[in-house]
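Field: COMPLEX_INPUT
Field: COMPONENT_COUNT = three
Field: RESIDUE_TOTAL = 964
Field: MODE = joint
Values follow.
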Amino acid sequence: MEIDDLGESSSELPGFDRAGLLKRIAVGSAALSIPALATAQGAFGATAAGGGGNYPKHPKWKFAFVNHVTTNPFFVPTQYGATDACALVKCSYTWTGSTKADVGEMINAFNAAISAKAAGIAVCVVDKSAFEAPIKRALRKGIPVVAYNADGANSGPKARQAYIGQALYDSGFAMGERIATLVSKGDVAIFIATPGALNIQPRIDGALAAIKQSGKPINAVAVPTDPALDVELGKIDSYYLGHKTLAGMFAVDAGDTQGVGQIIQKHSLQGKVIGGGYDLLPGTLDLIQKGFLEFTIDQQPYLQGFYPVIQLFLYKLSGGLQAPSDTNTGLLFVTKANVKPYLTTKTRYEGSSSAQKYPVS
Amino acid sequence: MSTNGGEALRVENVAKNFGAVTALVDVSLRLGQGEVVGLIGDNGAGKSTLVKILSGFQRPDHGRIFVNGKEESIRSVDHARSLGIDTVYQDLALVPSLSVTHNMFLNREVTIGIGPLRWLHNREMRRRAREYIEAIGIRTLRSVDAEVAMLSGGQRQAIAIARSVHSGARTLLLDEPLAAMGAKEGEMILDLIRDLKEKGHSMIVVAHNFIHVLEICDRVNLLQHGKITFDMATAETSAEQLTDLVAAEYRATKKAKPV
Amino acid sequence: MPVAEATSPTRRASLGWRVASALLLRREASIFVVAIGLMAFFWFKNHVFLEADNIKNITETTAPFALVAAGEVMLLVSGEIDLAVGRTFALAPAIVYVISSQDQYGLPIWLGVLLGLVVSAAVGLVNGVVTTFLRVPSFITTLGMLYLLNGITLHLLSGSQQFMPGGATFQSIFGSQPDEYALFLNSEFFWAIGLVLLVQFILTWTRWGLHTVATGGNLLGAAESGVNVRKIKIGNFVLANLLAGFAGIVDSTRITTIVPLQGGPDMMFFAVAGAVIGGTSLFGGVGTVIGSLIGVGVLIILQTGFSILGLNAFTFPIVIGLAILASMVATVQFARLKNLGKLQ
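Field: COMPLEX_OUTPUT
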């Protein structure tokens, strides 16, 4: 049972191998053409009922999204993406799971989706083993399953048909490389809300590896905080006060990133301590613009809701001929140089507005 | 009323403190076999404390207790029961959500089972409960499975007394059995007490209503300032005298106040 | 002898009528009716609700809550409450992990489970002793434990999810989530049913249970009758935490993972809500374990049913909250009507 409590965990992505990633980008970008085609036909509703775009009539399939932090603001654009995709292909989706990354709750929600005969399931695989059996059961019953945002263990067999999200380890590595360019030497703390969690731990692993690889005299340390947003801030503050010689403070999840920026602002550390992290919380963007944070990484959560629906839909429509494929939703560094559009627009893609607008600004 | 000369209960120089509060200073009291002694005193005089000591619920700080002529050190409620003393408290110690049967047998349950695995023998307990109820003369109870919460005050009192009687106690301590009871039910309880006396039980009855005390008790003891200050056969005293005695101290303090 | 007023003994009604009224008058009757009603409603809305898959889902989800609720019922009946059983739910499998995982000590699984249960019982013992001997209200004692146990669990698991040890045999006996279910239902559910019946038996048919009711129904009176109320309370704390720890071990086996924050206060509230709508009073002296199983079942039926109907996750809590209130009102009113009939 989900009672809203601390809900804020990092809504991060898992990672997978680079080679596969490059291969799938091709397919992924092909998927991008669908909405283009659809809009080229005119607004939905102009075509014959039940189809969506060029497509023939089909049952209004219901897909189930099983999420680990259902109330986390990071996933608001994901839900918009899913909503928009469903409108395109005339389907619908449900948004369930756990508010506090409780694997048991997620599995119960997953099983409920199976017994409700969902047309397809998209799940954040935040555990390396717990989801294997339920996913296999769904597949046996002919329900396609894709993973989004988190993809379980880095190695080993995976039951899901495809993964849609950001490469965890790789994005962490990219961050580590950037840290090495911004910080020349000294102590660096990288904050992580839930260490070991498969959706964010690989990021730190990547960052630490990149920093080490750079050869610079940087001593990077992973510091656990808390899944709860309000507690994170206090912990970052205390850590800084105990380590005033830090050269940089970074984070691998949305809450900690904003927290780092706020602490840098609180103690007026800009220029002395470099900060950066992930995701586009409004507070984070503001802090970048004001110069308290150097960068944040956009995971494009909108696409993490959009693509799963399209892929599952095509699987159903084609009777399995069009199988879901791994899709990288991208990695973009947002810095003071390019933060302006993010700040001045309130868009569906960031979750800051629910309005459908073109152009966005 | 004649007694057979033996003593059911005797206490000598019993004292009890609760931290800074002294409840009993030096209490000596005697209950003969087959006798009914009334224990009176103002509120807070320590009557309930004395009853709790005699019943085994509390230990005295000082003093000696003799049961049936033999000195005893009463360790617990169970121990007191094994010596033949049982108590019916002011609050009746009944559990409202339990049935008459289960209340009757609380902590004295009849069990059935195999080896160490024992469970409640409800059928047997029900049967005995019905017997006891009838033996004690309660006719208005429809079923022994009724929840005690549903019963009237008089019925509950009677059940509490029946419970004590049938646990094999010969000496009964009744703490305010008539408190908060209407006239009709009060009469029923008084009859019950008389009946028990006829059957040979010895009783100490704590009460406030002196008319009642004079009706059923052979002797009356007054507990004042932690001591028994008055011990007389009821035939030789009256309600007015008892009222005077209890109120005397209050009146004395009233007079002593500066005008 | 008081004047005997001859009242004829109650005439024995026919067997069928007696059985029917005995069942209907039971405390559990009202919540049972609610459960059946809800199942019918959801089946009517979508026949998928009563299909095998969904039944399995409902029973699987209900099992751990039912185990925790059973223990809470015993505590509530005795006049206490344990707010931290949800944390024992996480601590016990964490102990199993430390003892039996290949990453840690790697000792045999049965040893890990045994120690997990021993630690659960110890938690109950501490809760009970602090409440009865140190006179701290159980609400406060277990509130403190809520944080204490959470911290210990986080340490044992190094703050992150860990793989639950245990080989195939262990898993099939203790709540696996296999590809094909043995005997149609998940084994965790059978454990839940068995233990619920056992605890109900203890409550209704043993001296311990009777003394538990007495302790909660009239603490002073029970003590005056010689019931060892301290022992009863401490014993029930131990029982509740043993059940919660067992539930945690079994459920972690089912999902093959131990999550540090699993269970927790949410689980405890859910179990207590199930117990209360099933007929257990928060004030002590009255309770039913079978009722709590049905009560928890009702909550899960609601959750699953609305999930199938496509209710948004954010609307769930509203529905669950209203459902708890409505069931509570229904249960109370039903009981009142019953009692009016029972008065002499």
